[in-house]
Amino acid sequence: MPIFKLTTDVEGDVCETVAEFPDAKAAKDDLQLGMIDAIVGKLPNGPRVHLFAKVEDDSGTELYRASLIFTADNAPARN
Questions:
Q1: Cα-based torsion angle of the residue sequence 28, 4, 22, 20 in order, rounded to the nearest 10 degrees
Q2: Residue 63 in contact with residue 28, Cβ under 8 Å?
Q3: Separation between Cα atoms, residue 6 and residue 56, nearest integer Å
């Protein structure tokens, strides 16, 4: 099976994983699910999360890139 490198950066916490996948779509799908897990791990414990992720093939060619900036503000308290 082809080898892919998956990189995620969640608020500066960078994780690189090298793994075999049947194809680039399977690697991308796995990365997207990992992004969801990363977001769930950060929220609701804070008002924002910035996430960046990419998939590269074994030669280092970037095949997929994604980023998400989530920000939230609470409404003012009502009296």
A1: -130
A2: yes
A3: 7
Instruction: Give the SS3 label for residue 52.
Output: strand
Instruction: Give residue 41's region: left, alpha or beta (phi > 0; psi -120 to 50).
Output: alpha
Predicted TM-score (pTM) above 0.85: no
Token reading at 56 = 């590269």
Q: Are the C-beta atoms of residues 53 and 8 closer than 8 Å to each other?
A: yes
Q: Supply the pLDDT for residue 71.
A: 83
Q: Which amino acid is at 58?
A: D
Give, for all 79 residues of the chain, the pLDDT tens digit. Answer: 999 999 999 889 999 999 999 999 999 999 999 888 888 887 767 778 899 999 999 999 999 999 999 887 776 777 7
Distance of CA 67 to the CA centre of its chain: 7
Q: Which two tokens stand for residue 70?
A: 């989530």
